[in-house]
Amino acid sequence: MLDHLVYATPDLAATAADLAARGLKLSEGGPHQGLGTRNLLAGLGLGRYLEVIGPDPDQPRPQVARPFGIDMLTAPRLVTWAIRKADLDPADSVAMSRTRPDGVVLRWRLSFPESGDGVVPFTIDWGRTPHPSADAAEGARLIALTATHPEPAAVTREIEGLGAQLDVLPGPVQLRAVIATPGGEVTLR
Q1: Sign of the C-alpha dihedral, residues 59, 60, 65, 71?
Q2: Sheet with 174-181, edge to edge strand ranges
Q3: Where is each Glyoxalase-like domain found (predicted)?
Q4: Which has the closest alpha carbon to 42: 57, 29, 56?
């Protein structure tokens, strides 16, 4: 089951302003302490959401690279997507957390695929923590998620092996999401 899309940016405030001008309302998610990032969220319907993630100006620059290649970006990019899986093996996953603006701490586990190009999703297990879509900004709906990849058949098999589905066509590595908003459609690449 699709959990969320990850739209990474080198400038969170500028990207949020651009998306708002295009009709996509975002709400504050919160900081990822120690990673130097914070996120903004938009609900996409059906328990799914968009995560817009970028550098957090209120945190010092981290000792390691920020996740999702944020430090290398020159423009916002739809970098990957996540599918929800219950009971991820602690030996094969990473524990993470963040604190919402209301003080609630969210805790989850992630497991990343071997291919790091973003077309194959990572898996996420929210355990007993509240799901971020429950308090994300409302009003948007995911219409389509598609991808291109130089090896579409192999990538499709890997995605299906995770229990997910995605239309993957031949081409350079790229994800594409079309989101309906009250102001019209927003396409993220």
Answers
A1: positive
A2: 167-170, 141-149, 174-181, 184-188
A3: 2-161
A4: 29
Q: Which top CATH class is 2-138?
A: alpha beta
154 Cβ contact list (under 8 Å, min separation 6): none
Contacts (Cβ under 8 Å, ≥6 apart) of 184: 22, 23
Tell me the pTM. Answer: 0.98
Buried b / exposed e across 68-103, counting CB within 10 Å, b at 16+? bebeebeebbbbbbbbbbeebeeeebeeeebebeee
Please report the pLDDT score of residue 116 as a whole number: 83
**What would the pLDDT profile of 136-167 be if each residue is shown by its tens digit?**
999 999 999 999 999 999 999 999 999 999 99
Domain spans in the chain, listed from the N-terminal domain onward: 2-138
Kindly list the strands in the beta sheet with 48-55, ordered across the sheet, starting from the edge strand earlier in the chain.
Answer: 27-32, 37-45, 48-55, 2-8, 77-84, 122-125, 105-111, 94-99
Question: pLDDT (tens digit, 9 = 90+) per residue, 123-135?
Answer: 999 999 999 999 9
Cα–Cα distance for residue pair 9/18, rounded to 1 Å: 12
Contact 50, 141 (CB under 8 A): no
Q: Are 149 and 155 in contact (CB under 8 A)?
A: yes
33 Cβ contact list (under 8 Å, min separation 6): 59, 98, 99
